[in-house]
Amino acid sequence: MGERTSTVPRKRGRPTEGEREERREQILDAAVGLFVAQGYGQVTIDEIAAAARVTKRTIYTYFGDKAEVFTAAVERFRGRALADLGDGGQTLEELAARLVLVLHSDDAVGLHRLMIGESSQFPDLAERFYDSGPRGYIALLEQRIPQRDGESDAASKAEALFGLLLGERHRRRLLSLTPAPDLAAAKEHAAEVIALFGWSAAP
User: What are phi and psi of 66, to 5 degrees?
Assistant: First the structure.
């Protein structure tokens, strides 16, 4: 007879880096689902832990309080949104199209609706949302704004450009009046907005 293999599971040690990252993603997925469905103020750490199948202690260890969980979710979204833009060598047109595609998506619109509904009750959270999202996107656009000799208003132009990349189309998305754009539609919208500023397309 061959050697019998034990069916008793080995005692596990400390989780690996990969396991920690997987658990972190699991917590954030659960938290975002609950936040969007119920509202930030209605969700408890206990509910997040139950949905993610972890302990409360795990959440506190990985993130801290509920506000930190929400901030981490917004920052993760931004990271995923811009992950394929590489080392910053993309053109203004490429970045603008990517922002339209991402910020008009169902996930982004869901987070935006959530924050609008919760901002008056949680102003500090609203500030974190703005810092981790819009303010960062505007800064990226500012780096790619064409500058002519003597001009120093890239910041205001970037803010105006960002506003137009969302604009009425984003308002309609928030109201569920239109579907999320595909890549072709995002590129078209970005090109139309950039043309309003008189900037020529990249070669």
Answer: -65, -35
CB-based burial, 22-39: b 16+ in 10 Å, e otherwise: ebbeebbebbbebbbeee
- Would you say residue 7 lies in a domain? no
Domain of 110 in residue numbering reads as 66-196
Alpha helix locations (H) across the chain?
A: 17-38, 45-52, 56-62, 66-81, 92-103, 106-118, 123-132, 134-142, 154-174, 183-196
Q: What is this structure's pTM?
A: 0.77
Question: Is residue 12 domain-resident?
Answer: no
Q: Are residues 72 and 169 in the same domain?
A: yes
Same domain, 41 and 132: no
3-state SS string over 27-72?
A: HHHHHHHHHHHHCHHHCCHHHHHHHHCCCHHHHHHHCCCHHHHHHH
Q: Is residue 21 part of a domain?
A: yes
3-30: pLDDT as tens digits: 444 443 444 567 788 889 999 999 999 9
